[in-house]
Amino acid sequence: MPQTLHRSGNVATKRLAAIDQLLTAGIKLGPAKKHAAINRVLELVPEWTRGDCWRRIRELRKTIGPASPEQRQQAETQRPENSAPSSRPVSKPWTPADDDRLLNLAGYEPVPKIAQRLGRSVRAVRFRMGALGMSAKVTDGWSLRALQKLLRVGPSRLRSLIGKGVLRVRDAHITAASLAIFCAKNGETWDSSVRQTISTALREDDAFSWEKVADLLRIDISSVQDLIAAGELKLADPFVTDRAFEEFCRKHSDEISIALIDPATSKWLIREYGVSPSATNTGTVPRAQKHALVVRACKCGRKIAGNPYFRHIKTAL
């Protein structure tokens, strides 16, 4: 809520009182009048947002009661003749517990996923987020490229962690495009009924769960995980949210080689993400990974750790 209304002084006090009077009348006289009151407040106080109005309404509801029958009758008679009662179904009210769950999920997961978790429509979730002044955009987290650079690991290592279910991604469904490519390369020897079943599934869906892919290919889940680790099957959204990365650091510190990471970064991971030094800092690096300790600077300005530097300069030439 704008801080100008919390300053001492008669002007601020009178303006807040006028806003409260408008919003209180709207609350008592029903949804249509409430929205009209909010629109009027936004006209009178340009620095306010719709979210500020809804927060103030929640505070006012604690101190006011329902409108009298006479007031509601008066509001009905003042309704324009061409306006008809809304045919939209009554939405499920938002409780403080619902708002807490929404606050915990907002910014970490896309709106459709949040709506699914809360058992509400996408429209309802977006409206509530707007009322609470929250952004629906997922902004925090890590791309796989950023994690490779941070943890000093290769793409195959990250795919292996994802395939084992150790590192959660935003959407782990397998894309239909990658499944179609895999089938085109390997499906010549398959039974015709298997190819037909897969072909039908590819026409109906654009992404599949790991269990569904295992069923279509007639293999077990571990084989699907191996195909993901090998890069044969692609995931719909491999972005790793900050919360998922923190969970990985706390529960699977043994999968992180602190010895490969520079001291400043390793201290930051221990302090901010809960990486356990005792579980990961063995002090030794396998011979095959020692190249990752060497950081070279390219003429383009990039600093690259390990052997990927040589691939980079070949493409940069």
Biggest β-sheet: count, sense, barrel? 3 strands, antiparallel
Q: What's the order of the H and E elements?
A: HHHHHHHHHEHHEHHEHHHEEH
Structural class: mainly alpha
Mean pLDDT score? 78
Rg on CA atoms, Å: 28 Å
- Give the CA-CA distance, first to last residue: 55 Å
Query: Strand tally, please?
Result: 5
Binned, the helix content reads 55-70%
* Number of contiguous helices: 17
Q: What number of domains?
A: 4
What low-confidence regions span 5 or more consecutive residues with pLDDT below 50? Answer: 280-285
Tell the overall outline: extended
- Portion of residues in beta strands equals 5-15%
User: Could you give the order of strands across the largest sheet?
Assistant: 2-1-3
Q: Short summary of the structure?
A:
The protein contains 17 helices and five strands. It is mainly alpha-helical and 317 residues long. It has four domains: 75 residues; 36 residues; 67 residues, no CATH class; 60 residues, no CATH class.
What is the topological layout?
Blueprint: H1 10-29, H2 31-44, H3 50-61, H4 69-77, H5 96-105, H6 111-118, H7 122-131, H8 144-151, H9 155-163, E1 171-175, H10 176-186, H11 192-204, E2 207-208, H12 210-217, H13 221-229, E3 235-237, H14 242-251, H15 263-273, H16 277-280, E4 295-297, E5 303-305, H17 308-316
Antiparallel strand pairs: 1-2, 1-3, 4-5
